[in-house]
Amino acid sequence: MAFFRDAKPAAALAAVLAGLPWASNDFTAYQIALFLVYGMAAQGVALCWGRLGFLSLGHALFFGLGAYLSGGVLRAASNEALWYLLLPLAIAAPALLAYLIARVVFARSTRSGPYFSLITLALTMLGFLAAQQWSGLTGGFNGMADIPELPGTSRYETLYWVIAACAVGSTLALSLLVARPIGVVWEAIAQNEDRLQLLGYATDRIKAMAFAGSALLTSLAGALFAAHQGIVTPQAMGFVLSTELVIWAAVGGKASALGPLLGATIVGYASAELREQLPYWEAAVATLFIGVVLFLPDGVAGLMRRGQAPRRASAGQAKPVRRPFAPAASLALAEVQTGQAGVRILDGLSLGLQGPGIRCIIGPNGAGKTSMFNLITGRLPLRGGNIRLNGHDIGGQPAWRVARQGIGRKMQVPSVFPALSVRENLGLALWAGRAHGTDLLCLATLGWQTPLLTDILGQFQALSEHLDNPAGNLAQGHRQALELAMTLLPEPGIVLLDEPCAGLSPAETHHMIQAIQSLVLRIGAAALLIEHDMSAVDALGGEVYVLHQGRLLEQGPLAQIQASPAVRAIYAGGRK
Amino acid sequence: MDSGTVLHALNLAYELATLALTTLGLAIVFGLLGVMNMAHGEFVMMGAYAAVTVQQWGLPLITAVPLAVVVCGGLGYAVERWLIRPLYARPFDTLLATWALAMLLRKLVEAIFGRGYRNVESALTQPTLVLGSPYPVYRLALIVFTLAVMAGLFFWYRQSAAGLRVRAMTANPILAQALGIPTRRLASQAFVIGVVLAGLSGVLLAPLIRIEPGIGVDYLLDAFFVLVVGGLGTLGGLFGGVGIIGGAQAITSSIAGQTSGYAVVLMISIVFLWLKPDGLFSRR
Questions:
Q1: Is residue B238 part of a domain?
Q2: What is the pLDDT of residues B149-191, one digit of tens each?
């Protein structure tokens, strides 16, 4: 059973933690519990960093907020028991804050590089200042003291079991999530966020949700910290703790559920014990950290595990999935203009198409062919004119919104998710627009099939042979096939194909053209295809659009285009 | 002008000059190489300890300059070669690696010099009269020196052949390499110059501050915020960033206290990182 396989790390942890108080003593267990708490906070950091690829330097903010809020609630509850009802809210509030922060930051820019890290860092420092200043609420520099114990536990004995249960629970939850489709989506964000948007995933929201989830875990750790220590000082919200969480996650293994717990307990506990005895201990930890960054990107956990077991769908019948978009769409660009950095790329381009069939776009380099696709899919700003899909204005919408309305796009340089398996790449395309509610949390979703998928795998044998290999290992031609499959699997009404035959041998080109013709016909889409090879354009048939200097120069059947004096002039260099 | 205004103006100029001085090194390393050097502040700290060392040996303060150049330059070369170079394409990893380096340097200095505060005496700290107000000579010299260094760097960057090669490398490293520009050596030199500048700023600041192993973090964060607000890779950005960050901090601090000044700096930085991540004067 998949559940038992995924639950292994949590089960191992449970066994070790259950034995610990007997193997040592209550005081050691009390000390270890503190580092389990830190480890859970580090698990939160690792979720964002190891899975989704953005590093938060500000998780101490959520840790500290959780600790202060829960500490305050526990203190109030010692007079009036009704306050206990607010404890869940005290843990959830920092997560809500995290969600809001991530939404406003990611909505502006999909860049999740070091700038996001710096924002979270500055926010933590602001939180630290606030905790110091508002001494009426937080106790200021001396901290919020005399926090009572959690009801029904005693700090030095039974609280250990609560913390151990939470650590096992968080490890289990993380292992289960990562093995499910949502785990695939997270990894895809880390690898190629732009491509995922073109499939229709609102990556900014997914990232914000994950950030909130990781903050929730960290805030829960903060609440346990308050109950465990009985005092919360501004250090619980400080820069130093933030950095330590990152170090523990890195040393233990940021891409593993158990790793951060290991990192925190091993490095953290050893530090607490050895800091006073060995003068160079912290220098040694820093050196260890440098070594991990240079040589062990997956930390200690990466050493123990050789290659992750592939995700497997649970047994059970694959759900027949409905077609998400209405076919036979119409697309109309009217007098559109776009530019970048002062250069005008499209200059009053008007172009329309309606109903199923394949049309080709040709034009010299710099004519604006790819830019037109970029404009339609929200990658370039619309500076004039409008774009209508089935009569609705879609100009200036973000990529994922355009994709959700039924526009699929294949990039010029085939872009897939290199570290995910071919099966997972195809799955991402299949789930786009079809997965609703909790579908992404169900193992069964991994086994979804559509007739189109079967057809595609029949036409491209290489894909079905390599289903469980990483997509990055595919040859160029097979990568083109995979990206075509990913573009078509959501069954969009409009398909934009940017040089699907680039880099293919003549035989492969022939195969690709046949496949495009039959597959586009099958889903009833209207396709626009950029192509330089005239024999390929001829083989595809249909209308041909000629773009030149950001405008439509000519439109018609290929024979008519080839006879056009204007077209001949630009290709033969007669006119600029 | 009454002496109060002159004093305020001089103090502001001094604050901005120290901020510019400690930012210059990072402006080269982060602005030109794109390396978020989290150990930048530690190089400033080591420069200050170079001054402490020569004072312990009974040598004049000026001898701290060659010491800082040798120590920071040698270390910078080694760090670029073995720590940064394998990680150029991995921004998070350079951030973490230099961060670990910062911890290491801090702890090593702590182990050698102890945790306590140190002071460096300078003969130049007595005041002179500026427009009728007494002001320490050393501070005046620092302001002038900072302006001179910035002007020199500006002309070097804009006018010299080496500056042109650096700009080419920054704009397109692969093309620059194809044109025969030794980008590896150039990157190594730029990194060394950046950290040596950081060390020198530490030497210069040493007589003015209380020195302890942890002082680096504040210089690092202020420098980051200046570059974020101003934008990378231009002198205009550096000036703008220094003006906004330093000015806001100095003015708010004088009205509402130091904590508020710092809070304002953090808030300005957050807003810029969020709304204008390329800064005021972006080279993009």
A1: no
A2: 888 888 888 888 888 888 888 888 888 888 888 888 888 998 9
Does B260 reside within a domain? no
- The model carries a pTM of 0.91
User: Which tokens belong to B107?
Assistant: 């702890």
DSSP string, chain B: --HHHHHHHHHHHHHHHHHHHHHHHHHHHHHTT----TTHHHHHHHHHHHHHHHHHTT--GGGHHHHHHHHHHHHHHHHIIIIIGGGTT-HHHHHHHHHHHHHHHHHHHHHHH-SS-B----GGGSEEEETTEEEEHHHHHHHHHHHHHHHHHHHHHHHSHHHHHHHHHHH-HHHHHHTT--HHHHHHHHHHHHHHHHHHHHHHHGGGS-B-GGGHHHHHHHHHHHHHHH-TT-HHHHHHHHHHHHHHHHHHHHHH-HHHHHHHHHHHHHHHHHH-TT-SS---
Cβ pair B274:A104 closer than 8 A: yes
Nearest CB among A118, A132, A280 relative to B224 is that of A118
Optimal mutation site among B273, B278, B282, interface A, most CBs of chain A within 10 A: B273
ipTM: 0.88
Same structural domain for residues A223 and A88? yes
Q: Do A177 and A243 reside in the same domain of the chain?
A: yes
Residues A232 and A372 in one domain: no
Tokens of A405: 């309305």
B246 is a domain residue = no
> Residue A294 and residue B274: Cβ atoms within 8 Å?
no
Question: Domain range spanning residue B151?
Answer: 3-216
Measure in Å the smallest separation between the Cα of B221 and chain A Cα atoms: 9
CATH of the domain at A487: 3.40.50.300
The total number of structural domains that make up chain A: 2
